[in-house]
Write a structure and sequence with these properties.
By secondary structure, this protein is α/β, with parallel strands linked by helices. It folds into two domains: about 5-320, TIM Barrel, CATH 3.20.20; about 325-385, no CATH class. Helices cover about 45% and strands about 10% of the residues.
Length: about 400
């Protein structure tokens, strides 16, 4: 791993959550296999692997039942560790899924006192993130769903969710936190069905909010792949709408439980298109790895996992540059461009409509022309496999 081309720098904005490198390997069938990693130790580890920043849920850093004195002590130690190791906090979030009080959801729960507590807990998490200078606040509604639709009408759940986001936007404005909220979708797990299952569903909700300019999305590879969807397409839609506020990078075999695999380890071709898109359009936000090391690993293995996430991204970034510069690929793209026009859409006018209606098209000729996508795809494979 000595290739200087794959050495991370602050400009890459690679971040990890405390819950990622601090994951102890517990699963539904087995208890933890690694000892607890204190937040200050996680910061030191991230500095060692070349990360730019660290993210956290409120309770990753401060236990849910901590006293005010304990909170202040923990925050002080964490701030000192971040400053010592040159690690920033670009994003913060809130845990509204672990504690038993959220068994029926948080913002969408039927119990209004639970909904009020969820707002309070989120506001305090926003306070905590703001202390570290975080400007992005992610909301993942892990319990905002149902096992049976007998429990509530789903449109009522959407209304409750909208009301909560509107309230939090107002709180951010009142406190002058300047947060951008990034909503994270997932089709299922831990609930049988989550109300906002895809990035597109959240983009639809955002348009109905009181402050849509403050709210975007946080697409995650695993969450899109769980439903068999194309992560790059979800990210492209968010980007085109000006709503790609944050992104979670990991990997996932479609149809499985939420695996949170090392980035690019399961679907390197899909990861390639995602990295290439982000680099081609100039995405400047954090590149956050929301993944876990295998349960087989000790903390040296966790470091290898974190280094691997970073290295794979940088390898694929280089492959994307190679793809863009390849003479044969450029020639094929130029040939495609001859028939695709300048990229601008048709603008309606009465004259243009009249001209379009009177136009003749060579349907047979267009249908008979080979498009050479097979060659383009094989050239992509050649580059990814190092044969070109």
């Amino acid at each position: 791993m000595a290739n200087d081309n794959f050495t991370p720098g602050p400009e890459h904005k690679f971040t990890f959550g405390l819950w990622t490198v601090g994951n102890r390997g517990r699963d539904p069938f087995g208890d933890a296999v690694r000892p607890t990693l204190r937040p200050v130790e996680a910061v030191q580890m991230l500095a060692e692997v070349g990360a730019y920043g660290v993210n956290f849920h409120d309770n990753d850093l401060v236990p849910i039942d901590a006293t005010a004195h304990e909170r202040d002590r923990i925050v002080s130690q964490f701030r000192q560790a971040c400053e010592q190791h040159g690690i920033v906090v670009p994003m913060a979030t809130v845990n509204l899924f672990y504690d038993a009080v959220f068994r029926d959801g948080a913002f969408t729960a039927n119990d209004k006192s639970v909904r009020a507590y969820a707002l309070q807990k989120t506001m305090r998490a926003m306070d905590l993130g703001a202390e570290f200078g975080a400007k992005i606040f992610v909301l993942w509604g892990g319990r905002e769903g149902a096992e049976t639709d007998a429990c509530r009408r789903p449109d009522e759940a959407v209304k409750r969710l909208r009301e909560a986001i509107n309230y939090l936007c107002e709180y951010s404005l009142d406190q002058k936190y300047d947060y951008k909220f990034a909503l994270e979708a997932k089709p299922n797990e831990p609930r049988a069905d989550i109300y906002m299952p895809t990035t597109g569903a959240y983009l639809g909700l955002i348009a109905t909010l009181d402050h849509p300019e403050m709210v975007g999305v946080n697409p995650e590879v695993a969450h899109e792949h769980m439903a068999g969807l194309n992560m790059t397409h979800a990210v492209a839609q968010a980007w085109e709408a000006g709503k790609l506020f944050h992104i979670d990078l990991n990997d996932q075999v479609p149809g499985r439980y939420d695996q949170d695999l090392r980035f690019g380890s399961a679907n390197p071709k899909a990861a390639f298109w995602l990295v290439k898109f982000l680099e081609d359009v100039g995405y400047a936000g954090p590149r956050a790895f929301d993944a876990h090391a295998y349960r087989t690993e000790d903390y040296e293995g966790v470091k290898e996992f974190a280094r691997g996430c970073i290295r794979t991204y940088l390898i694929l970034k280089e492959k994307g540059a190679q793809w863009n510069a390849d003479p044969e690929i450029k020639a094929l793209l130029a040939e495609i461009a001859k028939t695709s026009g300048d990229g601008s859409g048709a603008k309606f006018s009465r004259q243009s409509a009249t001209e379009l209606l009177s136009s003749d098209f060579d349907r047979a000729g267009s249908a008979a022309r080979g498009l050479k996508y097979e060659r383009l795809d094989q050239l992509t494979i050649d580059i990814l496999l190092g044969a070109r």
